[in-house]
User: Fold HD phosphohydrolase domain-containing protein from Absidia repens.
Amino acid sequence: MNSQAFHDGYKVINDPIHGHIRLDESTVSFIDTVQFQRLRDLKQLGSAYFVFPGGSHNRFEHSIGVSHLAGTLIERFEKEQPELDITEEEVRCIKLAGLCHDLGHGPYSHIFDNEFMPRAKNGLNWSHEQASEMMLEYLIDDNNIDIDSQQTNLIKDLIAGTPRSQSQYDDRGFLFDIVANKKNSVDVDKFDYIERDALNLGLRSSFDTKRLLLYSRVVDNEICYHHKEVYNLYELFHSRYSLFKRIYTHRVGKAIELMITDALLAADPHLNISSAVHNPEDYLNLTDDILRSIERSKSSELAEARAIMKRLRTRQLYKFVDEFLVPPSLVDKVTTDVITAQEIVSHQGDNDGLDINDVIVSKGKINYAMQDQNPVDSIRFFSKFNDHGSFTIPKHHVSYMIPAQFQEVVIRIFTRNPAKVQAIQKAFRKTLRTICPGDVGVDDGVDGRIEPNDALTLPNDFDHIMQANKRKRTGLSSSQDSSDGGVVKNWSVNM
Assistant:
């Protein structure tokens, strides 16, 4: 991202997604702070960078891109719909909300939010959105930014997508649709990260951001889209789903997430990582570099965390064992409250020697951004014949190829011990058969029977194959091959 000096009150940077972006002095005053520059040290894709080398971009450039798109949209509304009476203050706050929406992310972003913090501080009501508010206040105070409390609160509310004073913004609801849209999840944050992630990963996005920015207007106090953009919006949500399916929830990436979580939890009592969320000065220095700090340490108290990191660096990763894509009819029955590590271990074979620490159960949901609902049902459209009224478009007026389900739930099993993959898979499949024996019925044409995925079924001689591969890599003979404490040494299998 190249930058040029100020010209006519603007600074120009060249962004690989949006081309040349003009940043006004107010926006630059936020960018040129240590609080915002911290985002250079947070990978946009978190652990996925360990799997996809192209995913090396950071939240810094994403945040600038979101600010640019937010400004582009609100300034077009200001120009083309003067009846909205959009003020300079609102334009400024919209741009800054886009810029600052990710200030509160921790190391490896959603690993910190969803995996580490719930286990490190069980019961603590905390989110990265709360941290964004904390860091925004810290940025403003620490750098003597000229902005009043009313504007600061507006920026916070625009980031949250909901005004804290409803009455004050009864006729300004469209402002809160731009950065974080809670009505239907169509917002400039998604516009930027879908396109940016796809480009960096060498993928092609099938939806057109520019058309959505151009063919939109405010009708009845909310952002609506030209009716011919309805399929483009379905493509937006499908593109997001595809990135989650193929990239964000990649099996190896998830295994690495679990390793990073274990390393952070092992280091937390000595580095007080989780306590930093309460103090902006401490949180400022909490970035992805925490893993390198662990590795650089020579402290005996961090030996366990260092050992996990060494396994990660040498690709002796936790291993994916199996998964079960839960039929809609079984979502309430097949849960992680029922399928636990303890339950799986209880179904082990006589000589398997499984321990609950060998097994990790992970539940994931992938959807069209609004749980099991169709988000396009919540989007309103205008027609070429009347752009002052709005309406919804049912999916059967768009295509009969649009999915009937908008969310899937998957239970995945991983292991910390690669030597026990096959034993754990067998125990997991026994557990499934015990929970849901036989045919449990049909739901919307989806077979509800518990059936193993043949593509994931390990051969009976899997252990012998793995040991043979290990001997080839390490040069050990059969008599020299050994494991210590059930953890195989020098194990590196790409799955």
The domain at 2-250 is CATH 1.10.3210.10 (Hypothetical protein af1432). Residues 439-446, 478-495 have pLDDT under 50 and may be disordered. Residues 59-80 form the longest helix (22 residues). The CA atoms of residues 345 and 354 lie 6 Å apart.
